[in-house]
Design brief:
alpha/beta, globular, seven-stranded mixed beta sheet, 323 residues
Length: 323
């Protein structure tokens, strides 16, 4: 009898543990936003439902900066570019007296960089090498670099609730894509391991490249020229060119994602647009329309009109960063 009771207790614990592990969106607070996501997934993946979506069409796209991981006080790829300036400085002595490079070499984050300045900085630090060398540089930096404020590794600053959402969607046969203004090769160096999204499902800005045979070995060489800016109105174009169809779900956090949300939710079938609103100054940052990074203004206004789901980070997430 004691043996049977012991087996029963063990079995109960196993079942209970399995149920807890299988709880969808465990780091999301119970409430309207969590329920909306779960109900949407349920109705679009249940055969016989009027909103059923075929597996082949279950596409979900996610912005990266500010949506899957943090983006303050500057985009994380910028921190990589700043580190590259210091590494490349010996070969570029003119940088000591040229802005923004002079400030960077003194350990300062440039305060007044235009989009043109940022693109030029990326071109000068991300090009002139093979794709293999660039990937190695990103991987090496990512393994050692720490966020200047939190002191966490950058890959620890991904959002636990979003990791759970990615997993939940994939469990229901949604194919998840990253659609970011960040560099596609920068993200491909680390994002597959962090998000479980393969390299071919990452869509980002691209610099031009050329094919060369170097010392008898075929190589792809990165050129100092922007080929495609996958931001704002570029996002729907990037999605269409890479995937060939309109997504069912789109998730972003800023006005840079507005076109992607707009295009996604304009589809005839059931669609879901989601905005992550940064409202938690204690656990992360609180910002929207007045922020230079991840500005959320027009998209937040449009969200009410379009019935997009606005996730309040402070009230809807019990945990922020990856556990």
């Amino acid at each position: 009898m004691k043996l049977l009771q012991s087996l029963f207790v063990i079995t109960s614990l196993v079942v209970t543990t399995t149920c807890v592990a299988a709880e969808p969106l465990a780091s999301w607070q119970e409430g309207a936003r969590k329920n909306t996501i779960i109900e949407f997934v349920k109705k679009t993946t249940t055969e016989g439902s009027k909103d059923f979506i075929a597996v082949a069409d279950r596409v979900a796209v996610f912005d990266n900066d500010g949506t899957l991981w943090a983006e303050q006080p500057a985009y994380f790829q910028l921190f990589f570019a700043l580190s590259q300036v210091k590494q490349l400085a010996p070969d570029n002595p003119q940088w000591k007296t040229t802005q923004p490079y002079a400030d960077i070499l003194q350990g300062k984050i440039p305060a007044h960089m235009t989009e043109k300045d940022l693109i030029e900085l990326v071109m000068n630090t991300h090009a002139g090498m093979t794709s293999e060398v660039f990937t190695q540089q990103v991987s090496s930096w990512m393994s050692l670099a720490k966020h200047p404020i939190t002191k966490k590794p950058f890959t620890d600053m991904v959002y636990q609730p979003m990791l759970e959402l990615l997993t939940y969607l994939r469990e229901h046969d949604y194919k998840t894509f990253i659609v970011s203004g960040g560099g596609v090769e920068f993200m491909r160096a680390w994002a597959p391991d962090v998000y479980g999204i393969p390299a071919e499902q990452i869509i980002g800005s691209r610099i031009a490249s050329e094919y060369k045979v170097i010392d008898g070995v075929p190589k792809i060489v990165r050129l100092p020229e922007l080929e495609f800016n996958n931001d704002k109105a570029g996002k729907p174009i990037g999605i269409y060119n890479a995937i060939g169809k309109r997504p069912i779900i789109a998730v972003g956090n800023s006005d840079g994602d507005r076109a992607m949300l707009e295009w996604t939710t304009a589809g005839a079938e059931s669609r879901l647009g989601v905005i992550v609103h940064h409202t938690d100054k204690e656990r992360e940052w609180a910002y929207d329309k007045d922020s230079k990074i991840g500005k959320l203004d027009k998209a937040l206004i449009q969200a009410e009109k379009e019935n997009w789901l606005v996730v309040d980070m402070k009230n809807d997430w019990s945990v922020v960063y990856k556990k």
